[in-house]
């Protein structure tokens, strides 16, 4: 029998294949490029391209593509076949180093946020050798970055790679001060836990809202939702099990380390978590995972919903971004050490994260902002839109003791001075896990829980890496100049705790009292929507930080803000139009014909016996008619606010109009429709209900 280890990574041009197919010179040049970012010689590129092509063709590939991540949030590919015509009329399969390194997709239709006039529409893709090439279907996919000819990045990979670079550089400065002379790089790693829903394709096809917007825009609460908590970690249904098995196989062939799978809180909701890996690769893998999840679902007669809030009143789907930083030698810098000295180093990295999250709360919120995720953040099953850090009791007590110069329980009642022998060995406080914190320390990593299930994880990690790099840069500037390292270190840690302890919160993040305390007493930001937070991307402190580190240019930032806001407006407008059309062509006619049939039934009864009261029919028809009137008025209202969007002077104003007028009109229209659903004979209702969808997969 074929075991997983026989086929794991069989579709990946990974280190094993490189070693087997490249000459030792070519292999070591390529390795140097991958590990240290050395530039690649064209002769090496030619040799790699040849080996890649031979390997891919042997596996049945006919085409290659530069696979990239434009700002739309999904992945893009344009396939070219390997064929070249030979003089005798036959074809040979060719692939050159030039084609491997650089591609020129006709990129005029990708959003550029004004970075590129359409007349110079060309952008180019550049090979990212740090992420392995792979075969999908019959196509060799080469992970690439996507830039415009003027230079600005048009994708998510380029700034992600830049952010990893700056984090490595600043972290190395700190490590050198602690006497580490051997580390060459510091790498950030991520394990993203992916949540999703499965519904049957048959039901999905009957719901225009799911097809056009990925979420239900109507639907009354089912009699049974997630109250009993009987789904979470429950027995997985056979249809879902076979989906998961098939999905794992496909992911494993692509070298994706799919590890954990289970049912989630809501009925029909599930989770898949891979083993963590380098951020850049984890990002590529997560994009691929989302794509394969949908493809495999189709084979099983299912649809995988990646929207953040497919069902109102039921748990939404997020993505937990487990993030840590480690040296190339494998030392996790967010893990408490065995010795006091190691722990001083740990504390400074911990402080860098605390400072980063507090200083750049807005950037972290912005990095997860989409129309879909707005429905989830702040609903009381997801983290709130207010960002805070959970540290756990042990670590919290250590920090408090340092800040107040008071003895810590593990230090034999001596006041702690960092870097000297009194610093205790910390217990890893991982048992008491806080599930409600947006940003939780979990023993050797931080879990950032605000990402939406359909988000690319690139954005969150760009901001996280950059903000932490900025803290480390500030610390290193001080520490490199000081004569008294121990004292300066102590001050940095103490001051950081003092200045940023408002961001630390170990209680229940879902509690309303916390939101009041956070915003009123602590002054933390609470940007409820994309329209609220996105304009702040261009705040001076954010532009200064990201441009001075070289992660973005100001122009790139502005284009991203505009694209994100445009996306927000477009998604909501699509939803609004879908609602209007569903009301007019499905919901209203259904209510009308049911009410008419009930009225006819009453009339028929009265024809038999005029004094029959027909109370049931009369009251039902009256209620349905008045709901129908209300639906009509609210549809008109939505139709009247929609076009005013175009009166806005720019995209920031447009997004405010969407938030304040369109979304609220949509919410109002939904109410009478959902009420009518509960009163209408199911035979008349024009599409599957929540009960059908949530309990439909067997
Ligand atoms: P849960 O949060 O569901 O309890 P785990 O804590 O076991 O699950 O792990 C969640 C994810 O965190 C997994 O993808 C795992 O690989 C990842 N992870 C574990 N250690 C690290 C680390 N040092 N850096 C980044 N991710 C990590
Ligand atoms: Mg988790």
Topology of this protein?
Elements: H1 4-7, H2 15-21, H3 24-36, H4 42-58, E1 63-67, E2 79-81, E3 83-85, E4 91-93, H5 97-101, E5 102-103, E6 123-127, E7 134-136, E8 139-148, H6 157-177, E9 186-200, H7 201-205, H8 208-213, H9 238-253, E10 258-263, E11 269-274, E12 277-278, H10 279-299, E13 302-305, E14 318-327, H11 340-359, H12 361-367, H13 371-374, E15 389-390, H14 393-404, E16 439-441, E17 446-452, H15 458-481, H16 485-500, H17 512-521, H18 530-533, H19 540-548, H20 554-608, H21 615-641, H22 651-679, H23 690-694
Parallel strand pairs: 1-8, 15-16
Antiparallel strand pairs: 1-2, 3-4, 5-6, 6-8, 7-8, 9-11, 9-12, 9-13, 9-14, 10-11, 14-17, 16-17
Bound molecules: adenosine-5'-diphosphate and magnesium ion (MG).
């Amino acid at each position: 029998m074929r075991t997983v280890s026989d086929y794991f990574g069989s579709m990946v041009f990974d280190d094993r294949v490189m070693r087997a197919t490249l000459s030792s010179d070519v292999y070591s040049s390529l390795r140097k490029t991958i590990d240290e970012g050395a530039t690649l010689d064209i002769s090496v590129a030619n040799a790699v391209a040849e080996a890649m092509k031979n390997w891919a063709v042997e596996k049945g590939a006919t085409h290659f593509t530069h696979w990239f991540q434009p700002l739309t949030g999904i992945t893009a590919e344009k396939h070219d076949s390997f064929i070249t015509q030979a003089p005798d009329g036959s074809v040979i399969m060719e692939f050159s180093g030039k084609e491997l390194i650089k591609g020129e997709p006709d990129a005029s239709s990708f959003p550029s946020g004004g970075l590129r006039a359409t007349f110079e529409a060309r952008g180019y893709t550049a090979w990212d050798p740090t992420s392995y090439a792979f075969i999908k279907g019959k196509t060799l996919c080469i992970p690439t970055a996507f830039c415009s000819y003027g230079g600005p990045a048009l994708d998510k990979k380029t700034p992600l790679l830049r952010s990893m670079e700056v984090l490595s550089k600043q972290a190395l400065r700190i490590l050198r001060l602690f006497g580490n002379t051997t580390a060459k790089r510091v790498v950030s790693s991520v394990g993203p836990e992916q949540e999703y829903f499965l519904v049957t394709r048959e039901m999905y096809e009957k719901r225009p809202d799911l097809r056009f917007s990925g979420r239900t825009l109507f639907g009354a609460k089912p009699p049974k939702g997630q109250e009993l908590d009987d789904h979470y970690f429950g027995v997985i249904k056979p249809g879902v099990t076979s989906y998961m098995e098939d999905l794992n196989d496909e992911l494993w062939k692509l070298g994706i380390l799919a590890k954990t799978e289970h049912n989630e809180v809501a009925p029909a909701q599930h989770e898949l978590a891979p083993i963590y890996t380098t951020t850049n690769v984890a990002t590529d893998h997560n994009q691929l995972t989302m794509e394969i999840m949908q493809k495999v679902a189709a084979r099983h007669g299912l649809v995988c919903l990646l929207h953040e809030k497919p069902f109102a009143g039921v748990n939404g789907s997020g993505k937990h971004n487990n993030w840590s930083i480690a040296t190339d030698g494998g030392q996790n810098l967010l893990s408490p050490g065995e010795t006091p000295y190691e722990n001083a180093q740990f504390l400074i990295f911990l402080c860098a994260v605390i400072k980063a999250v507090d200083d750049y709360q807005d950037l972290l919120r912005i990095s997860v902002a989409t129309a879909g995720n707005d429905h989830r953040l702040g609903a009381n099953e997801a983290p709130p839109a207010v960002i805070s850090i959970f540290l756990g009791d042990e670590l919290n007590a250590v920090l408090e003791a340092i800040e107040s110069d008071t003895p810590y329980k593990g230090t034999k009642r001596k006041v702690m001075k960092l870097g000297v022998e009194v610093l205790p060995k910390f217990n890893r406080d991982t048992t008491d896990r806080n599930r409600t914190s947006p940003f939780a320390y979990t023993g050797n990593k931080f879990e950032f829980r605000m990402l939406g299930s359909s988000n690319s994880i690139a954005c969150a990690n760009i901001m996280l890496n950059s903000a932490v790099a900025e803290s480390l840069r500030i610390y290193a500037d001080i520490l490199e100049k000081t004569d008294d390292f121990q004292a300066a270190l102590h001050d940095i840690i103490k001051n950081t705790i003092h200045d940023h302890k408002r961001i630390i919160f170990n209680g229940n993040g879902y509690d309303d009292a916390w939101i009041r305390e956070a915003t009123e007493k602590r002054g933390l930001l609470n940007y409820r929507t994309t329209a609220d937070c996105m304009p702040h991307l261009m705040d001076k402190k954010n532009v200064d930080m990201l441009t001075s580190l070289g992660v973005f240019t100001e122009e790139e930032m502005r284009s991203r803000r505009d694209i994100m806001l445009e996306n927000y407006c477009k998604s909501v407008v699509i939803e609004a139009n879908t609602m209007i059309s569903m009301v007019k062509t499905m919901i209203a006619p259904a209510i009308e014909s049911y009410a008419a049939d009930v009225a006819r039934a009453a009339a028929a009864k009265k024809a038999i016996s005029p004094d029959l009261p027909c109370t049931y029919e009369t009251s039902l028809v009256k209620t349905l008619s008045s709901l129908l009137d209300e639906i009509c008025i609210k549809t008109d209202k939505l139709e009247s606010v929609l076009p005013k969007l175009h009166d806005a002077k720019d995209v920031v104003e447009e997004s405010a109009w969407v938030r304040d007028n369109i979304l609220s009109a949509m919410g109002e229209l939904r109410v009478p429709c959902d009420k009518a659903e509960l009163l209408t004979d199911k035979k008349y209702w024009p599409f599957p209900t929540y009960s059908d969808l949530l309990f439909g997969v067997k």
